[in-house]
Structures are given as structure tokens and as C-alpha cells.
Fold these 2 entries.
Entry 1:
Amino acid sequence: MKKTMTMGLVALALLAGCSKSEAPTASATPAASAPAAQTAYAQGSIKKGDKGNCVVCAVKEGSSKEEAVVETLDYQGKTYVFCNETEKAEFISSPAKYAVK
């Protein structure tokens, strides 16, 4: 009986070890493996009507698609472009969140 109990405990311990499974880890982020889109330009080098990457869209949506520049803003020696006035206002309200360091 002792032998049966011991074998049962060993089997239980082995099964308990099997129940622990780790989920496969994903890579950091898809953007980390691909080069980031340019979101800050040399000051004055890009104007309304040009094509560029909206920095707010890039941060919020991960978008790297160039689109028509509707608004621009010079900030800390760089020009940032925006696809609409709302995105520019969002940048102004929290520039540290969006500005390239």
C-alpha cells in the first residue's frame, strides 16, 4: 500500500509539472523589426501639400503611410507634419508623447 501511495504521489507530481505551460513569446513589436517611418523632418524642409508621415498617426496607429500634409509645426528644431488640424492640436497638447527624441 505504501508503494502504491508513493507511486501515486510521484505520478501526481509529474502531472502537475506538465500542467505548467508557457505561452510562446511574441517578438517585441512588428515596428521594432521594421525601420520606423520618418516623422520629424529638417526644419522648414516640408510644407503643406507635400507628402509626409503624420507623427500622431504613426504613434497612435503605427501608420507609416505617407499622406498629404495638411498642417505643419516646427518644434525643437524639427518640422512635424499632420494629416489634419485635430492631429496637430493633439501634438500641441502633449508634444513629449509624439516628438522624436
Entry 2:
Amino acid sequence: MATPADNAGVIARPPLLYGAAFPIALVLHWLWPMPILDHTIALWLGLALIVLAVGIAIPGRKALQAAGTNMDPVHPTTAIVTSGPFRFSRNPLYVALTFLYFGLTLAVNTWWGIVMLVPLLIIMHRGVVLHEERYLEHKFGDTYRQYRSKVRRYF
């Protein structure tokens, strides 16, 4: 009898999900431009969000590496990380991906990025985050439940 895989069983790697949604928004923007704001304002707001995303992602990645666990949810998680941005969010790397995506959307200045973000966030929540939570609770039990009770899911 096969044993269950030691991973979260997510539907896809999160960067691939974001990376698939954004080109669709770009094509839709090319076909039917729908600007959000004045281009200069949108660009600067977008760049600020991109910087924020990088400012969350780098320490998040370092915290995972310091704990010796995998960043990729298709590989086994070996530790519950509670340092760095994981003190404030159980999913800071996904928050960073969302800020990056929204920053790019603003930099391109298209409502289509926001239109695509809505189903993307639903897919991320149901197909990635909830899968990971079940996996972590099953694997780490009370340790994960205590962490979950103290730290927000997103921000």
C-alpha cells in the first residue's frame, strides 16, 4: 500500500499561479486598456509595492533557510518557522507574491490585473493555503495549532 506523500498536496506552485495570471492580464490590457490611475502615480505606487514585496520575501526566505525547511510546498516541511515575517503572518511569502503582483499591476496601470487577482486569490486560498494548513496540522499537531492560534493567516 502506498503511503501518502509528505507534502501539502497543493494544486500548483504559487509562483506559477501568479506567473500564469499576470500574462493574461497583460494580454487583456493590450486588447482593452483600462487604466487605474494617472500613469505616473500608478507607476510609483506599483514600485513601492514591489519594494515592499521584496522586503517581505527576502527575510521570509532567510527564515525558512535558517530553520532548514523547504520553501517549495511540493517538498516536505521539516519545521514550523516562527521567526522573521512568520511572526506576523503564517504566509508571508504569499503575501509578498500578492504585493508583487499588485505592484506590477499598478506599474502597468491596468484594472485587468485586479480582475485576474480575484480568482487568483481564491485559487491560492483554497488550492494552496488550506491544503498546507491541513498538512501542517496533521504533521505537527499541537505545535502548529499553537502557532496558528497566535499568528494571522495573511496579515
